[in-house]
Design a protein that fits this description.
Layout (H helix, E strand, L loop, with lengths): L8 H26 L5 H19 L1 H18 L9 H53 L4 H16 L3 E7 L5 E8 L7 H10 L3 E4 L2 E8 L2 E9 L9 H67 L4 H25 L2 H6 L1 H11 L4 E6 L6 H22 L4 E8 L2 E8 L12 H11 L3 E5 L6 E8 L3 H10 L2
Parallel strand pairs: 6-7
Antiparallel strand pairs: 1-2, 1-5, 3-4, 4-5, 7-8, 8-10, 9-10
Helix pairs in contact: 1-3, 1-4, 2-3, 3-4, 4-5, 4-7, 5-7, 7-8, 7-12, 10-11, 11-12
This protein binds adenosine-5'-triphosphate (ATP) and magnesium ion.
InterPro entries: GAF, HATPase_C_sf, HATPase_dom, KdpD_sf, Sensor_HK_TwoCompSys, Sig_transdc_His_kin_sub3_dim/P
Keywords: ATP-binding, Kinase, Membrane, Nucleotide-binding, Phosphoprotein, Plasmid, Transferase, Transmembrane, Transmembrane helix, Two-component regulatory system
EC number: 2.7.13.3
């Protein structure tokens, strides 16, 4: 059908008008010759069959003017009374042909739009189905390697390209190929990898190779490339890949946070074990030894008869052991914190510090115990760090409750340069905060002091409820 060829529509319209005029000339000759030999009805049937064949072969745009012209010729030169060609008949013929071409054009444009819309709907349904398949894989917690393989396969099928490849940009400047679907040749061109890495956006190397960046949590993580050995990639290739690259980014971010969660849990367990071992050691080496010694002395004193002086001494020693035990339990949860809350506990912390500490606590009443304990230990460790590492002259601690969260900020005016990698203190605080459903950030530019901010939800359970609400 002509409408499916690449002939532009205006040219097709002009050709249809010419075909109409041509068919009038031919139909006139045929009508004049057949008039005395064939009956009008079978002749009309033949005419209509010819029009039908035109419609099937060339479409409505051609069939309408050809049919209109043929029927006019049949009327004028076959059925009596016959007509002579005059200005009036030419005008009528031109008007009929014009109308037929206009109606044919409108019908053609409308049907083409309908076909295009239908095709777009089909495409969209296919994309949605393939995105749904991939999203299911990610939601099931499938290992990233499998997700990457599935995405590259779907991208290749969706675009009809020869191959689709996912590569990851490594920190040392190299790249790792994670998955490849289709023919491995041609391999991902080096120039494409470089352009996407440097520009951070989609790049088309030539008509047969295109690359789209994969950005995870705001960082350029890798690149998706598609290639075609011979044929040209469609113009909208990059746009059609974007939804798939977003899915890859989601899968990667998901896997990363799962891995972080697992290692943070492992660190929390290790820290808890370490704390328990320390308490066991302190009890074993301190209070337990003293109690054993006191029991022995008590037995000797009983054997030797009444020795009031000795018993009084043992009583005093018992009081010391009780004090020691109390100190030990305070080490686990500072008594002032449990008894009076965060404000007095932070003030006590400030008083004991060798550095001047300004404390600004804006809270009404008490907070949930895990939040108070968390905030206290964060302030305590950050203050110890400021004393140990910063060479600071003053430390500011501020605490406020806002938006259902506790906001803690500890700032020193020291040397800066704090990192999570330097020891276990800051990392432990991060784990502690995240275990409470909060976040901890450290800003510590060299020479400009250190600021540690923590945000802890006052009701950690809310996160779970929100997530539940979000997934319905
Ligand atoms: N306020 C600060 N000013 C300057 N540097 C700091 C500050 N806080 C921490 N640092 C640096 O960051 C590193 C990490 O601190 P972190 O508290 O994790 O470990 P640490 O204090 O060295 O050891 P610990 O595990 O006993 O806490 C420190 O070694 C130090 O170099
Ligand atoms: Mg420390």
């Amino acid at each position: 059908m002509l409408s499916r060829t690449r002939i532009p529509l205006p040219l097709q319209v002009a050709l249809a008008a010419v075909a109409g005029a041509g068919s009038f000339v031919v139909a006139r000759v045929v009508c004049t010759l057949a008039r005395d030999h064939i009956h009008a009805i079978p002749f009309a049937a033949v005419l209509l069959t010819v029009v039908l064949l035109f419609a099937r072969a060339l479409g409505i745009l051609f069939a309408l003017p050809v049919g209109t012209a043929a029927i006019l010729a049949y009327d004028w030169f076959y059925l009596p009374p016959l007509r002579e060609l005059s200005e009036a008949t030419y005008t009528l013929l031109a008007t009929f042909l014009g109308m037929a071409v206009i109606v044919g054009t409108v019908a053609t444009v409308t049907s083409r739009r309908a076909v295009a819309a239908e095709r777009a709907r089909g495409d969209m349904a296919e994309v949605q189905a393939s995105l749904r398949r991939l999203a299911l894989l990610i939601a099931r917690g499938e290992v990233p390697g499998r997700v990457f393989e599935a995405v590259t396969r779907e991208v290749r099928d969706h675009l009809g390209s020869d191959n689709a490849t996912l590569v990851r940009y490594e920190l040392d400047g190299t790249t790792t190929e994670l998955a490849c679907a289709g023919r491995p040749e041609p391999a991902v061109p080096e120039a494409l990898i470089r352009h996407v890495r440097e520009g951070g956006r989609a790049f088309r190397l030539d008509a047969t190779a295109a690359g789209v960046p994969v950005v995870v949590n705001g960082r350029l993580w890798g690149m998706f490339s598609v290639g075609s050995a011979e044929s040209q990639l469609p113009d909208d290739t990059e746009a059609r890949m974007s939804e798939y690259t977003e899915l890859v980014a989601t899968a990667v971010a998901d896997a990363q946070s799962r891995a972080e969660l697992i290692s943070s849990r492992a660190r929390i367990v290790a820290a808890a074990d370490e704390a328990r071992r320390k308490i066991e050691r302190d009890l074993h080496d301190g209070a337990q030894q003293r109690l054993v010694a006191l029991a022995l002395r008590l037995r000797t004193a009983t054997h030797d008869g009444d020795k009031p002086g000795e018993v009084a001494e043992i009583g005093a020693d018992l009081m010391t052991v009780i004090d020691e035990l109390r100190e030990l339990s305070r080490g686990i949860h500072p008594a002032v914190l449990s008894d009076s809350g965060l404000r007095p506990a932070l003030r006590a912390l400030a008083r004991r510090s060798p550095l001047p500490v300004e404390v600004d606590v804006r809270l009404d009443g008490r907070l949930p115990q895990p939040v108070e304990v968390g905030a206290y230990y964060i302030a305590s460790e950050v203050l110890t760090n400021a004393v140990k590492h910063a060479g600071a002259t003053v430390v500011e601690i501020s605490v406020k409750a806002e938006d259902d969260c506790l906001h803690l900020r500890v700032h020193d005016d020291g040397a800066g340069g704090a990192t999570f990698a330097g020891g276990t203190g800051l990392l432990g605080l991060k784990d502690r905060t995240e275990a409470l459903g909060g976040t901890l950030d450290v800003t510590s530019p060299a020479g400009a002091g250190t600021t540690v901010t923590a945000r802890i939800p006052l009701e950690p359970g809310d996160g779970g409820r929100d997530a539940q609400a979000a997934i319905g």
